[in-house]
Amino acid sequence: MLIDGIHIPLTVPFTRDGESYLRKLEYNVGRYSLTPAAAFVALTAGSEGAALSDVEIAEMLRVIGAAADPTKVLVASIAKDSVRGAVTIAEQAAEAGFDAVLLTAPSQWERLTEEEVMLFFRAVADASPLPVVLGSESGSQGYRLSVDEIAELALHGNIIGVYDEGLTVERYRAIAEATQGVKREVTVTAVFAPVTRRMIAAGETEGAGFVDAASLSGGTAVAAAPKKGLKTRTKVVGFQVMSAGSAVGMVEMLEAGAAGAMLALSASAPQGCYEAYAAFKDGDPALAAEKGERLVEADAAIRALGIAGVKYGCDCNGYYGGAPRLPRLPLDSEGRATVERVLAGIRN
């Protein structure tokens, strides 16, 4: 599976009573599908994914899989402390049409040995029906994978990349050097865009229901629909590294060789985030740096306000954010004013 470009961490909508708001989730995914973002990441820790029940998780994965444009890569984040629980989410994601899973260390990693943490990643990757992307966290309570651990896990046939929070140019280069021997062949479109499982399924069913004239023995012949098919090719990629979380240094990471970025800010301003990426891909480093710098203040302010800030940013730009699930509280007037100010200069 090819992972690149701008990835949007989807928020989890709730009603005023704290119930899952699936219709608003469907609405958000539909609107995000109109943006140039390459992928949607569901149930990340910053999106309150850990606050959902198993039933809610299955429902949300199903809604996202049905509402997303087939060309968008879908990644399901897994927040489970057991191999069995993580594999169950991976199986549900596969049934919903997702393309990969994002796997972070168990929340109780401090009580585990390094051997047990590594076993968790390997065992889930062994059983997962979908490719696994590692999640390396930078917060005080998250597990930050070392370069050596990433290099060791990259040798697993079902582990294809990493979302790395707080990625630096130096760390990226260290990961790239440590995983330089990892090469895999992935399926892409004629223009080297990712081919999703939903695209393949649509290609297989295209033309179904038509009867070939040659198969009819009498009556009026019905011409068969031409089989357009899905034109694909293959591409060799290495271990894929995505910057995650902060917009600081995003362009520098791309210049170093990172595949793309999953920014908290992209949930409310996907177009603005994409423009910095597009300028880089178009070979205009000065414009890319300028557009990337514009994101920094808004990104820092919104991330400092937590999930309530991310959600209010969505409300400001035509997506449904709503209130967080208790005990998290919505923003006060000062926080809302801050979000409105920093988003004013960023194109949506």
Name a few traits of the molecule.
348 residues, alpha/beta, TIM Barrel, eight-stranded parallel barrel, 12 helices, 10 strands
Note the total helix count.
12
- How would you write the strand order of the largest sheet? 1-2-3-4-5-6-9-10
The CATH first-level class comes to Alpha Beta
Counting helices, strands and paired strands, the structural category is: alpha/beta
Total count of strands? 10
List SSEs in N-to-C order. EHEHEHEHEHEHEHEEHEHHHH
Gyration radius, in Å: 21 Å
Strand content: 15-25%
Query: Whole-Å distance between the termini?
Result: 28 Å
For the largest beta-sheet, the strand count, sense and barrel status come to: 8 strands, parallel, barrel
The residue ranges in which pLDDT falls below 50 over 5 or more consecutive positions are 207-227
Can you tell me the CATH superfamily? Aldolase class I
Query: What is the count of distinct domains?
Result: 1
Instruction: Summarize the amount of helix as a percent range.
Output: 25-40%
Q: Oligomeric status of the shown chains? A: single chain
Please state the overall shape, judged from the principal axes of the Cα atoms.
globular
What does this structure look like?
By secondary structure, the chain is of the alpha/beta class. It has one domain: Alpha-Beta Barrel (TIM Barrel), CATH 3.20.20.70. Helices cover 40% and strands 15% of the residues. It contains twelve helices and ten strands. The strands form two sheets. An eight-stranded parallel beta barrel has the order 1-2-3-4-5-6-9-10, surrounded by six helices. Strand 3, helix 3 and strand 4 form a beta-alpha-beta unit. Helix 5 packs parallel to helix 6 and helix 9 runs antiparallel to helix 10. It is globular and about 50 Å long. The two termini are 28 Å apart. 45% of the residues are buried. About 6% of the residues have low confidence.
